[in-house]
């Protein structure tokens, strides 16, 4: 049986009063509802401004369509969940971006989804998914460190492609675990450290400069140079010098779905290259270290390793909350 979950004050965990325009706490805090989305943070001055830009500009780039099912494939491979086991369950999605995985849950399962992002990407998610939600989507804007929901409320918790972009990776993991019920599962994926060579890469060599640039300027530079970079990348792979592509200031094009047409592939390349260079934080982790974080914060690890699928390879840790 699905239990109703209500928003609470993210700081005090006390119940909130609601009208058509906002949620109100007993302590006087006001959390406005803007464009039908409750806002528990002000994203105008926080570290997620680059994500606000990218997900509203590229709002549909990674949403599955009839030509590719990249998000669906990645979701079910990473979680190892089956659609039927999610029927009627309460699921928490942390860091939903434009809603690529939100769409998968709403279309492929009958689960009830609470989904949030720290950035204004929630605007894109709402535009992409509100019409198909059928009342099962509860979308809000909040910090991963102050989620406005009761602890121990969810049957499943997941967070994909987000943790490395938060200020404190372990505190983010700790926060997610406490929202799972005892016996419920938490699944995360993240950028892995594979060895000393991980940061010998154009991304990490250039990020000290690019993350301080105007996001619009950075995006313009990428758009102007993406065609030549793609051509060089493809040439190096063709002549079996793919190892050298790590020194090109462009995303690894081999991670982009091969089913995309030329224009869609270019769009995806711009998005992912901007995503490489613009975030304020980029902290890859060793899989064993993330597994240890789970154990330290009350979750028994059931899987820690790489998951391979037609959508690519992800570093994944799964755990079940014990305490």
Notes on the structure:
The protein is of the alpha/beta class and 323 residues long. The chain has two domains: 17-192 and 284-321, 3-Layer(aba) Sandwich (Rossmann fold); 196-277, no CATH class. Helices cover 33% and strands 20% of the residues. The strands form two sheets. It has a seven-stranded mixed sheet with strand order 7-6-5-8-9-11-10, sandwiched between helices. Strand 10 and strand 11 form a beta hairpin. Helix 1 (49-57) runs parallel beside helix 4 and helix 7 (215-238) packs across helix 8. The chain is globular. Residues 92-186 form the Methyltransferase type domain. GO terms for molecular function: S-adenosylmethionine-dependent methyltransferase activity. This is Class I SAM-dependent methyltransferase. InterPro entries: Methyltransf_11, SAM-dependent_MTases_sf.
Q: Quick one: biggest sheet?
A: 7 strands, mixed
Can you tell me the CATH topology of the largest domain?
Rossmann fold
- Counted up, domains total 2
CATH C-level label of the largest domain: Alpha Beta
CATH architecture of the largest domain: 3-Layer(aba) Sandwich
